[in-house]
Amino acid sequence: xxxxxxxxxxxxxLNPQDFASNQEVRWCPGCGDYAILKAVQRVLSQxxxxxxxxxxxxxxxxxxxxxxxxxxxxxxxxxxxxPCIATGIKLAKPELQVWLVTGDGDGLSIGAxxxxxxxxxxxxxxxxxxxxxxxxxxxxxxxxxxxVGLKTKSSPFGAIESPLNPIMVALAAQCSFVARGIDIxxxxxxxxxxxxxxxxxxxxxxxxxxxxxxxDGAFDSIRDKGARxxxxxxxxxxxxxxxxxxxxxxxxxxPHGIEVKEIESQQDLESIxxxxxxxxxxxxxxxxxxxxxxxxxxxxxxxxxxxFDGQIQNHIDKAKxxxxxSLEEVLxxxxxxxx
Length: 339
Ligand SMILES: Cc1ncc(C[n+]2csc(CCOP(=O)(O)OP(=O)(O)O)c2C)c(N)n1
Ligand code: SF4
Known about the structure:
By secondary structure, the protein is α/β, with parallel strands linked by helices.
């Protein structure tokens, strides 16, 4: 009897398959979205959260098909408006863990306004921005993150607009958790997602995602496993900024720019900047444009500050405690008049 009771109280162990829905996954074969879906299913199974407490909210785009493929609650909503719906859900049901899936078009064109306010307010929502630098669903128009010169159906002579840097956007919007991952990084990406899930506040992860149909190869130099060591650097707080085969290269972050240093001696090693999650360093690392400097991956910035949903709840609790007045009184309170 005792054992039965214990068994009954034990939480069921979940595995990634428990988070797969019965829907046929309809991305192009080979799309980077598949790897992200796998990573998310793995991460959800590792979080100590009941399955019924997850909600995935998306806008419109290939990326935004995500909620169909997860056996959690989900909303496939309106182009660019997922942050508004996610905010509403979090306010109405604070016990839910709300994830938001968006693309560079959905989140940074039509939805940029909503996304920055979600981050500024620090709503406790986990944002996954799939950045493939193109509009995939509508068949290959340039997006706000497309590189200058990219020839697409809507930029036949090459894109002429300066691309947005999603990490810089998130930092400028005062997002309290800002990170970058790579779709096929089966170790690094889930690790970032778990940290994002545990963070209290808006967690923003830009995920480099290959759209091999309309913008193939945009991230080849860092997606390719053979090249990744040389061309990326993983940000680990408290650790020197080392990269390359056998960590034989490092970065020195100067106030005026970033220097790549070959490490040949102990003195060289000691000159390498130790990474700290502070805004100034995050901005410097996020703004790297030099192709000779590796692309930072990992958590750029994290801070603890009050969440929007937490503060609203405090207001509600306080209002309930302070004034026990009827709806009738509320309606007739203050400046009212009769016609
Ligand atoms: C109001 C509105 N405007 C435009 C569209 C057309 N539209 C659908 S998805 C999309 C962009 C998708 O790009 P992205 O968010 O990068 O997602 P991807 O398909 O690349 O994953 C656009 C412009 C729409 N559905 N609704
Ligand atoms: S169009 Fe691109 S982003 Fe969309 S499913 Fe196909 S490969 Fe993926």
